[in-house]
Amino acid sequence: MIEIAENKCDFCGCCVGVCPVNCIEVKEADILIEHEICIDCDICVYVCPIEVLYQIEPNKSTSVAAA
Amino acid sequence: MWNEQKEFDCIVVGGGPAGSTFARVAAESGLSVLLLEKDRDIGVPVRCGEAVSDAGLRIFHEPDPRWIASTINRIKLVAPNETVVEFDLHQKGYILDRRIFDYDLAEFASIAGAQIVTKAYIDGLIIEDDKVVGVKGTHVGERFEKRAKIVVGADGVESRVGRWAGLKTTVKLKDMECGIQKTVTGIDVDEHMFDFYLSRKWAPGGYLWVFPKGKHKANIGLAISGLYAKDGKAAHKFLDEFLAWKYPNASVLTTVVGGVPVAKTVKHMVMDGLMLVGDAARTVNPVTGGGIIPGMRSGLLAAETAVKALKNSGPTRKNLIQYEKEWHKIGGKNHERFYRIKETIFRFTDDELNRIANGIANVPEDSRSLLKLFTIAASKKPSLLIDVARVFTGI
Ligand SMILES: Cc1cc2nc3c(=O)[nH]c(=O)nc-3n(C[C@H](O)[C@H](O)[C@H](O)COP(=O)(O)OP(=O)(O)OC[C@H]3O[C@@H](n4cnc5c(N)ncnc54)[C@H](O)[C@@H]3O)c2cc1C
Ligand code: SF4
Ligand code: SF4
Question: Which of A38, B182, B185, B295 has the greatest number of beta carbons closer than 10 A?
């Protein structure tokens, strides 16, 4: 499951742009992940420029190919 | 007032340069336009290096001195081994103050008759019979729905508008540049020079920039490709290391982060009742990461098509597709070329970059025809750029 570090997000939307299942929502000062839809691909974790997101169940990662 | 009006000709989601340009052009042609921006302030935070070319800006507006923090006429490229290659731009570039610029673009739209609403967050579309007919959202905590003949997704890198309608706009990991920038002061910079640092150690799969805003202030930022971000070192670490090395005494005034989609433009930019413009359609130049002018260009072309479609037989995909064609005619083909060039350039190893830089540094500046070609090509004849890139790969 993807966790969001508290008080760290800058709400830039970079993670939203890459999420393959469109389950991240970024508002002016709010970020939400719909965990029921998330496929734990970890792509959002890689792209976040300031390491806000992290995977707390590493084995769950399906590591979708970069392409 | 917008809250009393139930239906508009066009609803634009997002108040960046692409959305404001669409709104202005559509309103100037007499369409009723509502522009909805989620943030409380148009243009803020500024997630951008703010560099544009004079020629690009002039397609739309006479540059207003209030928009311009610095005028640039030279470029400095720094190779991994710190070999420096400098050359003349042969045209002017600017570092804008986008707080003022984006405000003005929104103001132009408003003067033309568009209604602009901030703190209006869109979280869904109204879709009937497979046609997009409106938006749903929240304005300062209150739910609302508005109908439109055409909904325009100008919602930036984080765009969800297209996806809600079933268009494929997801950016691949390798096509996302993960950016961070600090506006710093207390440093000495050449106020007329763009600095680019190219190396896997500074910014793998991207570049690091120092864009001056006067003699003692600059936007210093970098973007790394998602491909390399996957290796586990996040963008902010690269920037902190660079600043500690090059500008240890800098004071940070602002930090912003952001994604730059250096992707091919989305295959389908329109469907019944929907158009995508700017970063939402992935119009950024994939080599430079510059998205202000391409975004405005797509906003202009989309609005021209929207006006025609609404005056004729309606906002069907068949009518709106003219925009897609115009985009491909003007920018699209070059865009695909730039994309291929990006794929080559951003994969250069540091050794290759050093060899290229050393080769160029040995040539006296006034005969650096390759670079002259490169600058001219980049601004005017992109077809030349591919040849230059071939030369580069051949070195
Ligand atoms: C670090 C960095 C440096 C850059 N440097 C440069 C540069 O030097 N030169 C250059 O030309 N380009 C640069 N770019 C790219 C440039 O910033 C973008 O291409 C440009 O801003 C795109 O304009 P736009 O109007 O398409 O989108 P944006 O300017 O991103 O505007 C989109 C707007 O939509 C709003 N929005 C999003 N979702 C919703 C929603 N659901 N409801 C309501 N509103 C919503 C957002 O709040 C935002 O205001 C840089 C980008 C980054 C991240
Ligand atoms: S892990 Fe993948 S699916 Fe889940 S939120 Fe991140 S990008 Fe989306
Ligand atoms: S990429 Fe990082 S900083 Fe940007 S919105 Fe996502 S979690 Fe926040």
Answer: B295
Domain boundary among B222, B237, B261: B261
Kindly list the protein residues whose Cβ atom lies closer than 6 A to any atom of ligand 2. A 2, 19-21, 23-24, 33, 38-44
Look-up: residue for tokens 């969800």?
B160
**CATH T-level topology, domain A2-66:** Alpha-Beta Plaits (3.30.70)
ipTM of the complex: 0.90
CB contact under 8 A, A12 and B256: yes
**Residues from chain B contacting residue A53 (CB–CB below 8 Å):** none
CB of A37 within 8 Å of any CB in chain B? no
CATH number at residue B13: 3.50.50.60
Q: What secondary structure letter does DSSP report for A37?
A: T
The pLDDT tens digits of the residues spanning B38-62 come to 999 999 999 999 999 999 999 999 9
The partner residue sitting opposite A67, judged by closest CB among B172, B229, B236, is B172
**Contact at 8 Å (CB) between B207 and B345?**
no
Query: B289 to chain A, minimum CA–CA distance in Å?
Result: 14
Distance CA B78, CA B80 (A): 7
Q: Can you tell me which atom of ligand 2 is nearest the CA of A33?
A: 5
Residues of B in contact with A44 (CB under 8 A): none
Give per-residue burial for B117-152: e unless 16+ CB within 10 Å, then b. bbebbbeebbbeeebbbbbebebeeeeeebbbbbbb
Model pTM?
Answer: 0.93
b/e map B66-82, b = 16+ CB within 10 Å: ebbbbebeebebbbbee
Which neighbouring-strand residues pair with B68? B96
